[in-house]
Amino acid sequence: IFVMPLFYQHNINENTRLGIWHIEESESFFLRKVPLKKDVSHPHKRLQHLAGRWLLPVLFNDFPLEEIVIADTRKPFLENEMYHFSISHCGDFAAAIVSSGNRVGVDIEFITEKINKITHKFLQHEEYESAIQKWHALSSITTPFLLQTILWSSKEAIYKWYSLGEVDFREHIHFCDISKNDGQQDWLLPFEFRKNEPVDLSIHARTFNDLVLAWVLT
Hints:
alpha+beta
């Protein structure tokens, strides 16, 4: 498989791999290997859709693309659970995480100040104040947009990990803490998922200039 536009790859453990594809190809390139089962009318959204699925066998070359089915929640999955996987798109980028042994979720987002207008929709006030306080102890960046995007992307990754829908980001996904790996743009964020019985989750986030990647596995 031609892998030059593989923007980023991370082998998380022996059975879990993550990648970001920079979309530079035409639709015909992806259609050589990716079956277009989904009715996507917008040309760019169709490109994103195709690139995300193309990335799955780049990460594991025996990934059975033709066996993907769509759940009622619109989540793609494999009925035999040969692999668990999650896909995200943003602009000219597609991200995917694939695992043969773990439930997974992934999200990518551009960092823009627009996030400031919707922060109240996915973070409780006390939750955000705690995050800001911890952030200032770790980072010299004073504008809130990066932190807000990391928190939004983390909650999106958890939503995709859960996969059953009907999740209230403010009520069901609670930020606990944030820490940074020295010298790297890598962040670790413990969250508590409160939809049913509380579940402790560790979100890993990484920044690439104006792009945030977040992922979770259990």
